[in-house]
Amino acid sequence: MKKRVGILGGTFDPPHVGHLIIANEVFHALCLDEVRFMPNRVPPHKEKKSGTSIEDRIEMIKRSISDHDHFKLETIEIEREGPSYTFDTIQLLKKQEPNHEFFFIIGADMIEYLPKWYRIDELMKIIQFVGVKRPPYNEKTSYNVKLIDSPEIFLSSSILRERIRKGISCKYLVHDKVLDYIEKNRLYRT
Is 190 among the domain residues? Predict the structure, then answer.
């Protein structure tokens, strides 16, 4: 029987409770064996850099998922040079792990952006997309995206970076271990 694996990609800069909620909801709704958190090296759709290193983002993901046995870190995009195109990544994953069935998890912000994805029509043929609501974005699309009911939380990494920069508490918005790492390393201060 094929192992059922969810892939949640993103910059995770920083990872927050919204990411964990989405991963947990999809994990249970689709009876997955695991969910992999896959940080991008160079996200093709984002221009602004936060100033954190890849190593910082990896460490924060590890801390975020440390207390969930079925959440894993997937470094395939970090290990590759150049833009992190999902089409290339999924082709490589399927080649490396042919006995796995992959599900690509996206929020409504990315559902709206699907028409602009690199080789989207071909990508839709090789993987099942799973979408979750994310206010204020619209999850309606002509693409084949399996929608999952999930508690909605209006939270983004950019909101958290701004709060930290202003000295506003992020308690309960990120895992305590992540908050500790951010504070010790003075991330997002300027």
Answer: no
Prior bond to 14 cis, omega within 30? Answer: yes
pLDDT given at position 135: 66
Length reported for the chain: 190
- Whole-structure pTM value: 0.92
Has residue 44 got a pLDDT over 70? no
CATH of residue 61: 3.40.50.620
pLDDT tens for residues 49-61? 667 999 999 999 9
Whether residue 57 is contained in a domain is answered as yes
Q: Which of 48, 79, 106, 139 lies closest to 88 in space, CA to CA?
A: 79
Domain housing 151? 3-184
Q: State how many domains the chain has.
A: 1
pLDDT mean across residues, the chain: 92
189, part of any domain: no
Would you say residue 40 lies in a domain?
yes
